[in-house]
Design goal:
There is one protein chain. It is built from 18 helices and seven strands. A hairpin with a 2-residue loop joins β3 and β4. It folds into three domains: 73 residues, Double Stranded RNA Binding Domain, CATH 3.30.160.390; 101 residues, Tyrosine recombinase, N-terminal domain (DNA polymerase, domain 1); 169 residues, hpI Integrase, Chain A (Orthogonal Bundle), CATH 1.10.443. It has a four-stranded antiparallel beta sheet with strand order 1-2-3-4. Strands 5-6-7 form a three-stranded antiparallel beta sheet. The protein is α+β, with helices and mostly antiparallel strands. α7 packs across α9, α8 runs antiparallel to α9 and α11 runs antiparallel to α13.
């Protein structure tokens, strides 16, 4: 029988980075003097397995030994401790009853599908704002179409897009509950839609300046401030606000700015990076912004980065109805009306996915050189009288 309890609490607390065995398969792996993780090493048949028991110092030496003891007992009985832990977690999830708990669990399960693991909160916020305050503390098995109708009726027509998203997220939560073995009505969301009726709200496009008017506005952004410089680069490149606001200087190589695939709207981690050719004017704007960059974020601030609202408020103060995102529309209409740019090139300028999966697999180009020339023409248009 191998010796157990080789370590002391003082050793665990003061040991430098390294791996330390407590005996019986329990190990402490310290990244540095203050933090690490507990591991249980065991053999399952001919395979060596490694099981995490928690972070140090959140899990004490005593707790780690208790966990290791349970694992050793399971291993002696021919069980796989990792498999048994997963069974226990599934059993715990089966006991989730309130919609609030189901929603949290469904969100955790889908984080890997969401951009930035859903940190921005856009997936969860429709539930958090419009469903959970009314139904969050109700057992999920008791939720019916009447409950859902009553929860969403106040915004069904006035905030149609938000209501649609809230209904969609709730449907996902009900399916998640069913997968956990809970008795739920999977048709409740569809029945609620019938009770609520057809939405009257019509989608409104974000106001945009006509492309003929953009040069005057562009030339009025003559201050070397973050809001002016960010708006100028936004107009010059036609990108969305978020990747621009989080532009890291390491993303710029010569006259090409590479936006990571996961930063592109509606795209997943496997999406290729998106290259943006930078015109001479765009490079000049970047050089003007470099001296105030924070942590190599071109538009960094003391708290984070310049906000989308900062640019929008600046336009509001000028009594403009147009908004920053609308400059993408200005660029797209200019491409259609003032150039002979092919459809595929024009759509790629805005980072849109063009064609089906098979077509894209054979069209292995991002039209970088064509887009470079067009953005130079666009920059000249912006600087014209």
């Amino acid at each position: 029988m191998p010796a157990l309890n080789k370590l002391s609490a003082a050793q665990v607390r003061t040991a430098p980075a390294g791996r330390y065995g407590d005996g019986g398969g329990l190990w402490l792996h310290k990244r540095d003097e203050t933090a690490g993780k507990w591991l249980y090493l065991f053999k399952q048949g001919k395979r060596r397995r490694e099981m995490g028991l928690g972070a140090f110092p959140a899990v004490s030496l005593k707790e780690a030994r208790e966990k290791a003891d349970r694992c050793r007992a399971q291993a002696r009985d021919g069980l796989d401790p990792i498999t048994e832990r997963e069974k226990q977690r599934r059993e715990m999830r089966r006991n989730l009853h309130l919609l609030r708990d189901i929603a949290d669990d469904a969100f955790e399960a889908r984080k890997a599908e969401l951009k930035g693991d859903g940190v921005a909160g856009r997936w969860f916020s429709p539930l958090e704002l419009h469903i959970l305050p009314k139904l969050g503390d109700k057992p999920v098995a008791e939720i019916d179409q009447i409950d859902i109708r009553d929860a969403l009726a106040p915004i069904w027509h006035s905030k149609a897009d938000t209501a649609r998203k809230a209904m969609n997220r709730l449907g996902i939560c009900l399916k998640h509950a069913a997968a956990l073995g809970l008795a739920v009505d999977l048709q409740a969301a569809d029945k609620a839609k019938l009770l609520l009726g057809q939405q009257r709200h019509k989608a409104e496009h974000i106001p945009a300046l006509p492309w003929q008017d953009v040069p005057a506005f562009y030339q009025s952004l003559d201050d070397v401030t973050l809001s002016h410089l960010a708006l100028r680069l936004l107009i010059l490149t036609g990108v969305r606000s978020r990747p621009l606001r989080y532009l890291h200087l390491d993303q710029i190589d010569g006259d090409v700015w590479t936006i990571p695939g996961e930063a592109m709207k509606g795209r997943k981690d496997k999406t290729p990076d998106f290259r943006v050719p930078l015109s001479a004017e765009a490079l000049r704007v970047i050089d003007l912004a470099r001296p105030t960059a924070r942590d190599r974020l071109l538009f960094g601030t003391k708290r984070d980065v310049i906000s989308d609202a900062t640019m929008s408020r600046m336009m509001e103060r000028r009594k403009m109805t147009a908004r920053p995102h609308g400059f993408r529309s200005s660029l797209r209409v200019w491409l259609s009306e003032a150039t002979d740019a092919p459809y595929e090139v024009a759509e790629t300028m805005l980072g849109h996915v063009v064609g089906g999966a098979v077509e894209r697999a054979y069209r292995r180009t991002d039209y970088l050189e064509q887009r470079r020339q067009l953005l130079e023409f666009w920059a000249r248009h912006l600087q014209s009288a």
